């Protein structure tokens, strides 16, 4: 396999497990059935059952839940290398919806394929469990953010987390990253109004910490921003493979 | 194995996977190293690394994160059959703390034991991933609750979810369950003040929906309570084994 062909998922899982040639081949096979999906049309809908999971190859997706009163809570954003609906494959009924924010490419993974992979390559199963654990740790951070952080610390934490995740799959650097999210996405994710989002972003920019403008997040002062957010990236666990 | 010896974890995982005699034996071995821990002293602390995971055999635990300003967000409560710190074993650094709410019995599981189990019994790995997915689905519900639900719907949803979880491991029924939580636990979990918790519980009682008194939760009207909460238990995935 040529290094330019390394998928974002392989890149991500390699952070946790030093993958063998056979494991890499199995992972690449999972990645075969790639399709293009347009922005704005749900891939998976809340309450849907027996759907496949997807591995995101390119583009951005958000996962969300609609409340009975019609309000929307965005649970998380998915970037290349992330699973979509992994939890739902195992839980049978999807507990949330997925909407592509941009045009995306994603590889469909059927539940039976996944279970076969687990049976034949247990180290890959562990790596997938690692990825699921990491996803859960992010949801926990979002819970703490909404429950306990000020709106400015919440926004700062969110932008830093996205940055760290994007670096892992080669789509960002310590200076910043391309970001297709609108103020409405940020509002629905952080439990703020769109007006409040704008105010918080302006404060962060005016304090020389981070600028989000024209689809680009620029870290003006990564260190002070991390301090303000109380951002400790340990929960993202990106420090190199545990399983060799 | 005698049915009276079935551990809550085995009972829970059997909801997802019809376990073979060998898989049951492996699971019981994981369950050997049981110890007693007193209430109020953390089992695992935020930021601690290389700690073991635990399987909770009896008693209640809460997992929480302390924010830099000293406020506490309870992420979830663990009941018998739940893993403590499973995510942290794979993520190397614990992203939160665990505190026993009552005296508990818990079996220590070392990371290497867990990885061996995954390698030797891949169906068990899938079952553990199922349990982790279910835990994540609960954290997502808590996120949505804090982000989008009114305080009364949030409390109703929380009490219903706990009830459904306890039924699964034989510790509750549709009429109610024993519950050692205080108003302070509820407040830290639901993002409310203790005074607010009391007011909400009084409203739920006066409306004839649920009564929480003297360590006992009684569902006075399970159906109307579920309606108020918008509670759909599908995310708990308790409808019978997917893997036979």
UniProtKB/TrEMBL annotation, chains A, B:
Keywords: DNA-binding, Kinase, Transcription, Transcription regulation, Transferase
Entry-linked InterPro entries: cNMP-bd_dom, cNMP-bd_dom_sf, Env_Response_Regulators, HTH_CRP, RmlC-like_jellyroll, WH-like_DNA-bd_sf, WH_DNA-bd_sf
Domain HTH crp-type: 149-223
SMART domains the record matches: cNMP
GO MF annotation: an example: DNA binding
PROSITE patterns: CNMP_BINDING_3, HTH_CRP_2
Pfam families: cNMP_binding (PF00027), HTH_Crp_2 (PF13545)
GO cellular component term of the entry, any: cytosol
Domain Cyclic nucleotide-binding: 15-119
Protein name per the record: cAMP-binding domain of CRP or a regulatory subunit of cAMP-dependent protein kinases
Organism, scientific name: Roseibium suaedae
